[in-house]
Structure formats: C-alpha cells, structure tokens
Amino acid sequence: MGGPSRRGNAVLVAATYLTVLAVLVLPVLLVMVEALRTGIAAAWRSLLDPDALSAIRLTLLVTLVATLVNTAGGIMAAWLVTKYRFRGRGVLVALIELPISVSPVIAGLVWLLLFGRQGWWGGWLDQHDIQIAFATPGILLATLFVTFPYVARTLMPFMEQQGREAEEAAFLLGAGFWRTLWRVTLPDARWALLSGILLTTARGIGEFGAVSVVSGHIPGLTETMPLHIETLYNGYQTVAAFTMAALLALIAMATVLLRSFLEHDFRKASS
C-alpha cells in the first residue's frame, strides 16, 4: 500500500512543480530575457526615458497614498466587524469584499460616471477648475477601490480569534480607544497587518483595468507602469516594454517574497 501511495504523491508533487514552472516562473524568465535581449545598457536607457520615469514616480506615489489610506481604513473596518455585533454587519462585510468580485473596469467606469466631463458632477468640477478623471486624483480613487479589501480581510480572522476580553479589560483600566488599539489589539495582529499592507502594495502597483479607464493614457502625465508597458508594446518598442515589465515583475516578486518571509517568521514564533 505504501509504495503506490508514495509514487502517487511523487507524481502529484512533480505535476504541481511543473505547472508552477510553466505558468508562473517561465513567463517571468522570458520577460527578463527579452528585456536584456539588446544588453543591460539599452534596458537601463529605456528606464531613464522621461515618460518611463514619470510612470514609475506616479505608480509609486499612488501606491503609497492608497496603501496608507487603506491601511487605516482596513484597520477600522476589521475592528468594527470583528469586535461588535450589529444589524447590517453581514452587508458591511460583503461591501468590504466587493472590490475583489467586481471587475476593475466597472470601477473605473463608475468613477467616470461620477467625475468625468459628462458625468454627474463633471459640470460642477469644470466650473471650479477641478479635474479628477484623466488626472492623478482619478487614478488614486481607482487604486483605492481595488486595493481596499486586503488589509481588512487579512486582519479580520486574527481579530475575530482575539475576542474582546483584552480590549474590555483595557477599557476598564481607563485606556482610550487609540491606546487600546495600538497597545492591545494590533501587536498580536502585526504580522497579519504587514501581510495585508504588502498585498495592498502589490495590488496597487500592478493595477491596470480601473486605472486604464480613468487615466486617459496620457504619456508622461497619467500613465502608470502597467499602462506605460501597453503604450510601449503597442508602439513596437519591445525592449523598453519588456524592461518596464521586468521591473514591475521584480517589485511584485520582492513584495510576495517579503510577505512569505514574514508569514514564516509568524508561524515560527507562534509554534
């Protein structure tokens, strides 16, 4: 019985590794090879192009702001739905998870419906010389929407497991809300919080659909890194496109590896 079972497990493990290599690792390697096809110097020059630098700066700025805002919002949302029971709690949880199930393109269209020139508030915004659609604020709103769930959904299981006893004891001893949050609740959930922050960062850096709709694809102004890759590729600038894609892939892989490292440390500390 043991022999066939071991052989079956070996086949399953081998098939899993082959699938991962073919679907995940090989495409990244091909991107790296294509980026360096004409040499490191050419790839480096493509990254120093003003439009490329603008795309990198805009991506990092929007991702930083979205991560900070959604970290604060995610902590508050996770606290609310795990520490209290109230009517409509299930609806709130469903709304928190909504960006995961809704297509990012739909989110971008909603922002255009609200803030575009022909949108509900477009006339008022034009009168006051405020531009949201096809500008950085619109890109930020789109990124905020698609990245909102990750901190909240990562924290919720840990906060649910904590219960309310420690917080109630802190309140009885005279601690305020913020002191209780920082000194009692978050220290136990710090690894989950960091994991959620890293997921939010990775999602924000790689977002394409919603940002593509609200950005206007203006090179040097409203193009993020994913949008700039599309512009370069459509313009037959293959090396530059794959170089930017390689940089984006390296950032994403570094984020995922850091998250895996933190999770490993958390499991090791908990055991």
UniProtKB/TrEMBL annotation:
Keywords: Membrane, Sulfate transport, Transmembrane, Transmembrane helix, Transport. InterPro entries: CysW_permease (IPR011866), MetI-like (IPR000515), MetI-like_sf (IPR035906), Sulph_transpt2 (IPR005667). It comes from the Bacteria. GO terms for molecular function: ABC-type sulfate transporter activity. It is a multi-pass membrane protein. Its main location: membrane. The chain crosses the membrane at residues 12-36, 56-80, 92-114, 134-152, 238-258. It is found in: Cell membrane. It holds the Pfam family BPD_transp_1. One of its GO terms (cellular component) is plasma membrane. The complex is composed of two ATP-binding proteins (CysA), two transmembrane proteins (CysT and CysW) and a solute-binding protein (CysP). Part of the ABC transporter complex CysAWTP (TC 3.A.1.6.1) involved in sulfate/thiosulfate import. Probably responsible for the translocation of the substrate across the membrane. NCBIfam families: 3a0106s02, permease_CysW. This is Sulfate ABC transporter permease subunit CysW.
